[in-house]
Amino acid sequence: xxxxxxxxxxxxxxxxxxxxxxxVHGKPLVYLDNAASSQMPLQVMEAYRDYHSxxxxxxxxxxxxxxxxxxxxxxxxxxxxxxxxxxxxxxxVIFTSGTTDAINLVMQSWGRTxxxxxxxxxxxTMEHHSNIVxxxxxxxxxxxxxxxxxxxxxxxxxxxxxxxxxxPRTRLVSIVHVSNTLGTVNPVKQITRMAHARGVPVLxxxxxxxxxxxxxxxxxGCDFYAASGHKMFGPTGIGLLYGKKEHLEKxxxxxxxxxxxxxxxxxxxxxxxxxxxxxxxxxxxxxxxGMGKAAEYLMTLGYEExxxxxxxxxxYATQQLTAVDGVRIIGTxxxxxxxxxxxVDGIHPHDIGTILDFEGVAVRTGHHCTxxxxxxxxxxxxxxxxxxxxxxxxxxxxxxxALREAIKVFR
Length: 411
Prior knowledge:
Helix content: 40-55%
CATH architecture of the largest domain: 3-Layer(aba) Sandwich
Largest sheet: 7 strands, mixed
Strand content: 15-25%
């Protein structure tokens, strides 16, 4: 059973998330789709609204008070994110539209200048499409080679195979920190150390990690780290790219426009310093402020309590779902985040998801933008329940009850 402190943490969290009090199809909402998008607490909503209602103005360009206030709030958000991931300098934190945009920035700026014909890029079988498609595009353009780390039946990376894939032609390792489908927590510190031993930089897709566990980019040693606001209690359309200054300073801008320059003429352009060199045009100011507040919210809760609560939920959900006849869990790695993907014998996941929805239970069904991983397990789709710190055991019970009802309908 969870201890009293864990129960209080979950209860306190729920008070911060008004959407959790609504009903769907006349049933209390059970929101278990956090890997797709987590919900937003009042503290973030208020910061977002405060910007629009009290000091909405463009940043970095105005001398009037509203502009200065907006600039200060946005840069405070950047500093909060720097503290969250323990970057050495706020200049290493670049605002993007999300993890996908961050990965594409690295591909376009670093990749197109560093990768040549015959070079190799290493990914894993469990990557999200956003960490496959950009590199496939680059390999097609540069005539480079994409190599893939296999995944075991339990959902863990085969590190011996990974080591054998590293070669003198390897130019980058791009790896997911936490699988959005399996919940597997990958040993990115070890993966980075093995790559660096050969002088190979590492990019980490941290979209599923930042809201669930402490992330210290200096300790991990990775060269780039990407994350999204909407998966860490923040707004949509905002994210971050962390990059070591030594790389970012050498990388050319990807997008051109206002604010990423110091001076412009028709003959010459002098680019701005970090991080603004990569932030062309008017940014998502409210989003940056909101993502910063989400980072503060996570730090206030504390990762120790978050991890205790989510581990209890994961263990309980695994136990309860395993006891349902015909249910098979996909992904049983030793180190997992609070994600349970499963299939039910003879019933399509979309049908399961539809029945669960009528019972007020929100889960995700489909390939979860991980089609190569689905192919690895001989599947086209799974049902995925993904939990956050505000979820409770009672909601797992409602999920299991609704699942049993769905099985009765289709059998």
